[in-house]
Amino acid sequence: MEALILSCGTGGGHNAAAVAIQQELAARGHSAELLNPYTLRGERLESVVNAAYVKLVQKAPHVFGMVYTLGNAYRRIPFRSPVYYANNGRMAAYMRRYLMEHRFDVIISTHIFPAEILTSLRRKGFPLPRVYFVATDYTCIPFTEETECDRYIIPSEKLIPEFCRRGIPKERLCPLGIPVRAQFYQHDDRAELRARLGLDQDRRYILLAGGSIGAGKIGQAVSALLSHYDRSAVELIVICGSNQRLYQSMSRRYGSRCTVLGSTPDMAAYMRACDLFISKPGGLSSTEAAVSGASLIHITPIPGCETRNMRFFQHYGLGVAVPFLHTRLLKVCDEMLERERDLDRRGNAKGVIPDHAAAAICDLMERDTAQTAEQEALA
Q1: Do 330 and 259 share a domain, yes or no?
Q2: Strand partners, 107
Q3: pLDDT tens digits, 167-189
Q4: What is d(CA 134, CA 174) in angstroms, rounded to the nearest whole number?
Q5: If we measure between CA atoms, which residue out of 191, 193, 174 comes closest to residue 183?
Q6: Which 8-state DSSP code applies to residue 212?
Q7: Which of 101, 106, 196, 248 is the most buried (most CB within 10 A)?
């Protein structure tokens, strides 16, 4: 099977989901190409699109929330969105040329922008293989309903009513989960993980992260926690992701009092080795925590889809929501640290978040491709 996976760099979750699918396809012997469609028009456009999003959510998340709210409001108007026309006008011709030069059996989009581009091509009569849209948040984000994909992979069957209300046909919905890398399903012994990571076996650890771009009020959370806990009993590990400014600031201010890291390939190990995980409620990082069995506390969501992610996890008992740091964070941390430290919380996700989503998605694509081949042979 020849697969094309489309994603964008507006947040690390979309790319991480794409990589998880690519790795699973490669493990099965399939060919899977990962592409940011904006590179077809030039590296500069890709950089501009990515940088604009990163700066917005890091420096002015409330503005992003306003944009998200406007997107929801625009849904009430019976016209295509500006997002659709922007992608149509700028990118459809480049994608069309690329697909004419390359053959694929399936196309997977883990971001709304490529899905809009493909929808534009389909509406103009350009022949496409089967198209799969993979939702990476626990809500139906604005403009999903104006795309025309063959399958919509959604994070949970609990979200089927919401997607249907937004106009997605139920028969196209596949509640297979958000794909995460295989290492988040490996449940090694905590003592072995701590030994490998160089962590003390008898100390409590709180892991803090702001997603791949280091967004959220991580600095405020670290300051509050350091004033509350003695390092000899509870140590903080702070993951700054690709945010170099945050890494330098945190290292300068708190490096002598806690562990500060940039991006790390050991995120899955740190989640399982630590007693608590504090993070903004990104769809992918929250899913990683759920399948890892981490004790999750959500803080400072980027308004919009992350607010809905936080509500979803709170509602189903998969995480504790602390949107305002100054009111409850320390009390919640105290309470959760008092619970049994080796309590396995993976069971909480059963029936809500599917296991091994990447494998299930690949199973679905293999079945669909085989069925298409049979139909073509009979024609």
Answers
A1: yes
A2: 4, 131
A3: 999 999 999 999 999 999 987 88
A4: 10
A5: 193
A6: T
A7: 106
Distance, CA of 261 to CA of 378 (rounded, Å): 57
3-state secondary structure of 237: strand
What CATH number is attached to the domain comprising 192? 3.40.50.2000
Output the CA angle 103-136-277, nearest 5 degrees. 135
Q: Which residues on adjacent β-strands are paired with residue 106?
A: 3, 130
CA distance 143 to 116: 9
List the domain range (segments joined by +) for residue 320. 182-349
Share of the chain above pLDDT 70, in %: 82
Query: What is the tens place of the pLDDT at every residue in 215-259?
Result: 567 888 999 999 999 988 999 999 998 888 888 989 999 999 999
As a whole number of angstroms, the distance between CA 213 and CA 107 comes to 27
Alpha-carbon distances, residue 27 vs 19, 21, 95, 264 (angstroms):
12, 10, 27, 23
Residues 7 and 40 in one domain: yes
Going by C-alpha positions, the residue among 12, 7, 35, 51 that lies closest to residue 288 is 12
| 286, 313 contact by CB (below 8 A) | yes
For the record, the structure tokens of 152 come out as 């919509």
Q: Is 378 exposed, middle or buried (0-12, 13-18, 19+ CB in 10 A)?
A: exposed
pLDDT digits (tens, 9 = 90+) for 81-140: 555 555 555 789 999 999 999 999 999 999 999 999 999 999 999 999 999 999 999 999
Number of domains the chain is built from: 2
The phi-psi region of residue 296 (left if phi > 0; otherwise alpha if psi is between -120 and 50; otherwise beta) is beta
Measured distance CA(238)–CA(261) in Å, rounded = 6
